[in-house]
Design goal:
It is built from six helices and seven strands; from the N terminus they run E-H-E-H-E-H-H-E-E-E-E-H-H. It has about 210 residues and is α/β, with parallel strands linked by helices. Zinc ion binds next to helix 5.
């Protein structure tokens, strides 16, 4: 399936077929499952040898996804990986992303300038550089970006960005927590776990 990312951003919540709902409405003990696709961004004009293309490999991203699930398991949340693949995007989009500007990526995705195969509820993009950040989640979207060489663990950056997608804000007083900036902390406190699960249920129900 090849679908415009913009379609996914707006309508993903309505697509029950994309979603495995293990949870149901009730218990705090049941696992909530949300689909996730991960993509490596390459320079459409220069190929994988281009300095703009990510240096990552598919197997590396698959390994990151396993470790992300270990982090989110503490909240009873499963990130159900639908696809891990490479996609080609225009060089100018990668240049803008490299400067920390996500607008041309979002515009090009909306315009169908490049296609995202098998998008999920949550979609992550791995690329050479994203400004000076380890990772980034454009406000109000369910997509995140992770740089090739973050200053903290790959799975931690990726999981932190997903925390933002699940409605979590930064914590300022405990570097051991996932939502503290710039550390390898992975803890989620009880309130954060509740908020994240509540957010996912809202996404799956199409009300968030
Ligand atoms: Zn953050």
């Amino acid at each position: 399936m090849r679908v415009l990312l913009s379609f996914v951003l707006v309508f993903a919540a309505c697509s029950a077929a994309d979603t495995t709902r293990v949870a149901g409405e009730a218990s705090d003990n049941e696992t909530v499952s949300v689909s996730m696709s991960l993509y490596i961004l390459d320079d459409a004009d220069g190929g994988t040898d281009s300095p703009l293309s990510s240096g990552r490999e598919i197997a590396e991203i698959e390994a990151i996804a396993v470790l992300m699930n270990e982090i989110w398991a503490q909240a009873g949340i499963e990130l159900d990986v639908k696809t891990v693949s490479r996609i080609d995007v225009p060089a100018e989009v990668l240049i803008d992303l490299g400067a920390g500007d996500t607008s041309s990526f979002l515009n090009a995705a909306s315009a169908g300038t490049f296609m995202v195969p098998d998008p999920s509820i949550i979609n992550g993009f791995y690329l050479g550089r994203i400004g000076t950040a380890n990772g980034l989640t454009p406000l109000g979207t369910r997509i995140f970006f992770v740089a090739d060489e973050p200053t903290v663990n790959d799975e931690r950056v990726s999981s932190h960005e997903i925390g933002h997608i699940f409605g979590l804000h930064h914590v300022l007083d405990n570097s051991g927590q996932l939502m503290f900036s710039g550390t390898n902390g992975t803890e989620l406190d009880a309130a954060e776990q509740s908020v994240a699960r509540y957010s996912i249920e809202g996404i799956l129900d199409g009300v968030r």
